[in-house]
Amino acid sequence: MTKIGVYVCHCGLNIAGTVDVENVTEYAKGLPDVTVARHYTYMCSEPGQRMIQDDIKSHKLDRIVIATCSPRMHEETFRRAVAETGLNPYLVEIVNLREHVSWAHTHEPEKATEKAKDLVRMGVARARLLEPLEKRKVRVEKSVLVVGGGIAGMQASLDLANAGFKVYLVEKSPSIGGRMAQLDKTFPTLDCSACILTPKMVDVAKHRNITLLTNAEVTDVKGFVGNYEVSILKKPRYVDAKKCVGCELCTKACPVKIPDKFNENLTEKRAIYIYSAHAVPKIAVIDPDRCLRLKMKKGSVCGKCQEVCEAKAIAFEQEPETIRVKVGGVVVAVGSEVFDASRMAELGYGRFKNVISNIEFERISDASGPTGGKIRSLYSGKVPKSIVFVQCVGSRDKRFHAYCCRVGCMVTLKQAILAREKILEDVRIYVCYIDLRAFGKGYDEFYSRARDMDIDFVAGVPSEIHCSPNGSLYFDVYDKGTSKLLEMHADMVVLGTGLVPNADLERISSLFHASRSADGFLLEAHPKLRPLESAVAGIFLAGACQGPKDIPDTVAQASGAAAKAIDLLSSGEIELEPLKAVVDKDLCSGCKICESICPFIAIEMKTEPGKDKEKFRAEVIEAMCQGCGLCSSACPTGAIKIQQFSNPQVLTQVQAALAEAKPKGGK
Amino acid sequence: MSLTDLMTMATPNLGSREKILARLCGRDLVNCFQCIKCTSGCTALKLLELKPHEIVKLVNLGFVDELASSDIIWTCATCLKCVQRCPQKASPYHVIVALRNLAVEREAKVPEGYLKAVSQILETGLAEPCRKIVTRKMETVDRECLGLPKVCNPKESFQAVFMKAMEEKP
């Protein structure tokens, strides 16, 4: 005979504050097969777990029902506790009295208690039919794919490679380095971005455990945690990587000028180019859309680069190449983009040449940028006499992005300080802000330093910016500090544009089945307790693709994601949950409906020689099945069931739910 | 009351605030974080000292009565720039209109111009009367000499509908 123990948790006052737990416990005692029912302040605590374990031994319980918080929270905890006594851990049923009852019905304690009783009755009914299950172990690949070669991807790759894992680092552009490579100096210490970044770039390129794939994109992902099969498209550089020495002779000979993306299109480069001064690998690359020969597909056209290249490295015949690798896990570190301020028409970006974005200011301030690091107008060439920074452009704005960009305030403080240091006292510098957020370590001290450097802060942002015919800018702004409407004139306005989700994220999220949050960034598995991974097992998140981040936070998350991947893969095998679909071969008619709807590609149709003709049968690839249940509900013959969620197991709950229901309405 | 305006000794009237919020169908249009973009661009600020951010803040704090009886709410030029540009999708303009409605309901003094406009519409169906204008060549012209048709007065049914709309409490 089944012996069931029912345990009602108070969760402090989270449950007991609304639900009458004693009443529920007394009710449970009266249910069939219930041998013992108890309630306790914190069931998940050590004494709470021991109470269950002692009862299992003394009362010989064989089914456990725990009425507590969501199973997402503590199902594993209770399964472990039960397994320690020798009972199969899958004979535990969790009833959710917190999220489903007390938190949802705080103001109706009596009804909540009735609902709690209903749910406990349903749980007990289901517990009777639970079956013991075993976990299965599978071998995993001890290698990791890192997508994105910015500071996040580089940090994660180095940590993984140093731990002995094989790393495939895939970067879309011809060089690694990402956004950080474009920055001049970094807050709050003002160390030069290139000085701290380039050694890391070189380390990545030289590490024997890292395979660096630049100018490449992930095109397909198959498989499951521990055993992913990834296809990577390596786009042709049209330059032989083994021969090119990075002498840049070709980049001077090429007659075709194209905008330089690394310099935010403020300067021009040639159709054959080296990505940046610090590019790793420092190998030339040809833009196939702009190169005259590649565009016209004629061997006789141009060829100037070929003529000057002493290393004979130009290779017009190169073709795209698809590389397939097997990896155990993936770190997604594809970063973010900068908000396109021209969408906010009132500020004049794109219309007025002296209105620039903060990433453009970064290039102007950088020694390898269009002005060689001198701060001046790209339009007139003059050193500005007054610079105004306008904050929260595209961020904290429900018309565009409702979130705070988290870096804009500090970026502006840094740029204002750089402007002051570079132009000395000949410039007036203003910051128009809504709230100034300097929350990190050493950040508020940095804000204070900016105020000491004669940088003025105006509490209020302009409604619109105007431009006079001579190119100077003017606008009104109401300062809430002085309650005055001020007219401001500026030679340069720098917009504090925020970070926005990468345009590639849509493709990336569907490739890896990684969901996105409402703001468009990739969604972490839990906002507090699992911030480094996506909800899909084996897919980890690092850097600004998960949400806007500055460099310290990005590096911290990247190292964390690497550690998580090491934790998952280091033992060489992982345990799989047994809550999967199973097929009753005799019932399967081979209709293929399950195969067509399975979102995890976990169903394979196998042929079987029948009496008259060949017959198809569904087979579940256990390691890929996530136990979602779509196939089970769609199967017309009832041949597929999900372990522990079979029809009888679910229907008995429904019956229990309706057992005490009073008929409503009618006569 | 936990809040007193020491200049006027006024305290918030949460009942009046509820009335305004009901007219605005909730709090979305007063969800303001005081970036002051509205006031920086306000057409009526320069001449008439209207500060939209202050109006929204005063409503949030519950100082509705002094606003409803003030002249300042009648200075808004309804250019809607604040609605267009508010980063939080709040709307000082809708708040001001709600305050004006409350003022009318309380029979506060409505500036003469508005009353004139109402009787104008009632009589002619137009917010602005037809009048003579001066062209660039400094000629004074009216509709007749431009060959434009005469504007007829509205039908009586229009006036009935208009009167009925005015009497209805929003």
Short description:
With 667 residues, chain A is α/β, with parallel strands linked by helices.
N- to C-terminal separation of chain B? 30 Å
Mean pLDDT across residues of chain B: 89
On the 0 to 100 scale, the average pLDDT of chain A is: 93
Q: Secondary-structure element order of chain B, as H and E?
A: HHHHHHHHEEH
Superfamily (CATH H level) name of the largest domain in chain A: FAD/NAD(P)-binding domain
What is the CATH class designation of the largest domain in chain A? Alpha Beta
Our count of helices of chain B gives: 9
Alpha-carbon distance between the two ends of chain A: 42 Å
- Contiguous uncertain segments of 5+ residues of chain A: none
Largest interface: pair, residues per side? A-B, 21 and 19 residues
Rg on CA atoms of chain A, Å = 31 Å
Report the sheet with the most strands of chain A, covering strand number, pairing sense and barrel closure.
5 strands, parallel
Strand pairing plus helix content of chain B: what structural class? mainly alpha
Strand content of chain B: under 5%
Counted up, domains of chain A total 5
**Helical residue percent band of chain B:** 40-55%
Helix content of chain A: 25-40%
Largest sheet: spatial strand order of chain A: 10-7-6-18-29
Could you please say which CATH topology of the largest domain in chain A applies here? FAD/NAD(P)-binding domain
Strand order across the largest sheet of chain B: 1-2
Count the E strands of chain B: 2
